[in-house]
Structures are given as C-alpha cells and as structure tokens.
Amino acid sequence: MPGERIVGVGGTEADQRALEVLLRGADLPIARFLTVEEALSAIASDEVDLLLLDLMLASNEVFALLRAAVPPGAGGNRTPVIVTAPPSAKERVQACLQRGAEDYLTTPFDPQMPLLVTRRVELCLRRRRLREFTSRLQMGARGSNDTQVLRLYTDSASRFVPREFLQHLHRDTLADVKLGDHVQRDMTVFFSDIRDFTTLSEQLTPQQNFDFLNSYLKQVTPIIRGRHGFIDKYIGDGIMALFPEPGEALAAAVDLGRQVVRYNQGRHAAGYTPIRIGIGIHRGDLILGTIGEEERMQTTVIADAVNVASRIEGLTKTFGVSLLVSGTVIAGLEPQHGFRLRHLGAVKTKGQTRSVAIYECYDNDPPEAIAQKEKTAEIFAQGISEFRKGMFLTAGRIFARLAEMDKTDIVAAYYRDRCTLSAVRERGPGIWDGAEKIELK
C-alpha cells in the first residue's frame, strides 16, 4: 500500500497531525493535505486513491468535491471518499453517504483507538483495488496473472455466497454488493432435515458430528446444484435451498431421497445407523438481499414463503412421510409432470391465518406402498373431501378402512384419529373451514 495516494481536505491541524501518526503506525500511506482547488485538480488528474473530506468545510465545497470524486454513473472508476466530522454533524454525514461517500470517521481522532481510523482506511483502499481489478478485467486489459487471480477470488467467494445470489442482485462480485441491495422474485423454497439428528449427535464426539454432516452434505448438495438450485444456507443438519422452477425443486427432492437410500447402504455396511430425512417445498414471492451494517453484512431471504416451507418440512414428521409440497408448487408443474402425488388436504400451522394445501410425493416409497396408494387413491380423496366438508364420522370410517388395509399408511391413521369425537371437540366452536390446525412452530 505504500504507493497509494491519500489526500485530505480540511480539518484542524491537531486532527491532521493525529491522522499522520495513526497512518504511519499502521504502515499506511501518509495523507497529503490540499486546498479544495488543489484537490479538485488532483481528482480530475486521477492522482487520488482515497479522499479524506472534513465536513467542517462549506457545504458547497464539500458537495463539489463529492461530485468530482463520485460522479453519477462512475461505477468502479470513482474515487473513494471517507468523510470526517464531529459527533454533532450526523445529518451532514448522512447526506454525504447518500451522495456516494463510502465511509465516515469521527473527529477528533483518538490516538488511543487507532483501529477506529486505520482499519476503515485500509478497507476502503482494499475495496478500491478490487474495483479497479474487476474493471480492468471487464475491459479486457488483463495482466499476466489477472485471470487466475479473479478465478481464485470468485471461486473462493462462491463457497460462502452463491454465484446465483449475486446474479439475482445483478452484481458481478462481492465487491459490488452494497448493504440494502435487494430484489423480489417468485421462487421455490426447499427445506430438508435429518430425522432425530439430536439423538444421533449425542452418540458422537464433536469431530464425529462434523465428519458425519460433511459426509452427508457432500452426497446431497450436488443434487441441488444439478437441478439448477442453490444453497441459501446450511442450518445444522438442515438445508435451505432456492429454485427458480418448482419442477426442478421437486425433482431434486426425489433425487435426494434416492441418494440417501444409497448413502444408507454405505452406512449400514460400515456399521452405522441409517438416517431418515424430511423435505418440505413451497413456492411464493420472496426478497433476496443484504442485511446488517457496513462492517458486517450477509445475504438473506425474507418472505412468508420461507416460513411456510420450513413448517411444511416439519409436517413430514406429523404425517410420517418423507416429502411434502404445497399447492403453489403443484400449480407450477408441467401438466405431464409424472410425479406421484396425493392430496392431503389443507393445514394451518402455528402463526398462519391462511390455509395451505399440501401434497405428499411418494415416488420414493417401496413398490408395494406405491401400488397400494395408487389402488386406494380414489377412496383416499373421498376421505379428504368428507373431512374438509366437516363430515367427520364418514371421513373417519374411510380412513379407518384405509389404515386397516395398509398398516404403514401413517397419513390415513392420522386422519382416522383426527376424526374421533374428542379430536372434533378440540377444534372448538365456529365455522369449520376445512383446514386442519396443527400446532407446529
């Protein structure tokens, strides 16, 4: 960094001396203090790598320097500006940040707290170098190692922030991402979870827990990418992923279930307990963006669709199935999609006011279970219809017969039990809207 050029404009002599000491102590370039006219000329001649602008200058001078350093549409060719001001000048700081200033420092500088100054200066210079590097590559003016370095940077960054997330934000690199960047999309949210993971993890050492989780995730994560989805986050043993197309999300869930069967064969051969998973999928509008503050931000997804998808995944435990999807996912499938689906009615989970239609996808059931569900599909649909109309006695008889015919059909047994008199009383007074209320967080 010794070759980089820091220019300061304004400020007291005491602040200028303190800044010189702080920068020298951090092995940073020493600031050169200029008048407003000299600074404007230096910026125009591209002789400034960082402008330290004191806000005790006249407003017209401050804004003239800001316009010169950060002209509209400058993109990566702007000169970064850090404004300096006492705590009482918060409104002026806010106005400058809105006009393109990159950061701010509070005066008077405290020699006892050097990192409050030097760390921000260092990061600002680092961001400028990265912007210049990216711009040079985009313009085709590459040095001998530029392509290799950019590939290394992009590959490293994508291990923490998916490329797809940046693409949705219309950003090329992490250096281009700003706090508050966001975009609204209609997407499909995918949640998966390992059943009884807490019990399993209690039998393992911390190292064994990490080894197990990484072993499992290496098996299933490529399936999501292969179906054009991307991982938003890992949540312990859980996965949250996003898909542009609902059909791809459902296909990934089916593929993932089959991969777990193969994974369990290896676990069984090695003497380990097989695992079971649950998957919930829901589609809806969501917002992808960045939250936090300037020194620490992260990408996130904000939407009711995320909460619904998570709760649908939780319902797989209630219904004893491995894969549940919402009606909005089904509505987005191609007419000849080929998935084996069974409508399980509508539910309201804890905190939800609107009911959500849910479907079981049983593509990965054993052949005998698939045959039985297809054989009884019409009877099951009649039971759901009677249940939703509030004809609990009739629905109870239908589900009792189905549960007797197939002891492994947990859904039929669930609805049989929910049609009993005591269960009906639990629903309380009021008009029955056909949606089963389930206390699931």
Q: How would you describe this structure in keywords?
A:
47% helix, 441 residues, 3 domains, single chain, Rossmann fold, Alpha-Beta Plaits, 14 strands, alpha/beta, 5-stranded parallel β-sheet, elongated
In short:
The chain is built from 17 helices and 14 strands.
Structure description:
- The chain has three domains: 6-138, Response regulator (Rossmann fold), CATH 3.40.50; 178-364, Alpha-Beta Plaits; 367-441, no CATH class.
- The mean pLDDT is 85.
- It is elongated and about 90 Å long.
- Helix content is 47%, strand content 21%.
- The strands form two sheets. Strands 6, 7, 8, 9, 10, 11, 12, 13 and 14 form a nine-stranded mixed beta sheet that branches. It has a five-stranded parallel beta sheet with strand order 2-1-3-4-5, with helices on both faces.
- It has helices at residues 13-25, 36-44, 59-69, 90-98, 115-138, 146-158, 163-168, 197-202, 206-226, 246-269, 304-319, 327-331, 367-375, 377-388, 392-405, 410-418, 421-426, and strands at 6-9, 32-34, 50-54, 81-85, 103-106, 182-194, 230-235, 238-243, 277-293, 296-302, 323-326, 341-349, 356-361, 435-438.
- Helix 15 runs antiparallel to helix 16.
- The protein is an alpha/beta fold and 441 residues long.
- It contains 17 helices and 14 strands.
